[in-house]
């Protein structure tokens, strides 16, 4: 097995894992924010701002992985 074949197998699997992990992380963040808002409705603005900042970071990491994966696919 050469490096091209290893990249051809590993890149789609890595991108799929990244996508699932991102979806799981965002889902967990939104669920926690909804629980916190249900417990303390008066703090909903602070909770929403913090949740959106966290979701933006998760999405940024996912996009970095996607760009990195596409850059490596050019090496195949």
From TrEMBL:
Q: Name one GO molecular function term.
A: lipid binding
Answer whether the UniProt record assigns the keyword Transport to this protein: yes
The protein's matches in SUPFAM superfamilies, at most eight in alphabetical order, are given as:
F1F0 ATP synthase subunit C
Q: Where in the cell is it found?
A: Membrane
Look up the domain of life of the source: Bacteria
Please state every residue range assigned to the domain named V-ATPase proteolipid subunit C-like.
14-71
Keywords, comma-separated and alphabetical: CF(0), Hydrogen ion transport, Ion transport, Lipid-binding, Membrane, Transmembrane, Transmembrane helix, Transport
GO cellular-component terms in the record?
proton-transporting ATP synthase complex; proton-transporting two-sector ATPase complex, proton-transporting domain
Q: A Pfam family this protein belongs to? A: ATP-synt_C
Query: What membrane topology is annotated for this entry?
Result: Multi-pass membrane protein
User: Family, per the entry?
Assistant: Belongs to the ATPase C chain family.
Q: What's the protein called, per UniProt?
A: ATP synthase F(0) sector subunit c
Species assigned in the record: Candidatus Danuiimicrobium aquiferis
């Amino acid at each position: 097995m050469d490096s091209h074949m290893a990249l051809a197998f590993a890149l789609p699997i890595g991108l799929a894992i990244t996508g699932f992990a991102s979806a799981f992380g965002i889902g967990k963040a939104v669920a926690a924010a909804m629980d916190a808002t249900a417990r303390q409705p008066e703090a909903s603005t602070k909770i929403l701002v913090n949740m959106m900042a966290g979701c933006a970071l998760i999405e940024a990491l996912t996009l970095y992985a996607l760009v990195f994966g596409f850059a490596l696919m050019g090496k195949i």
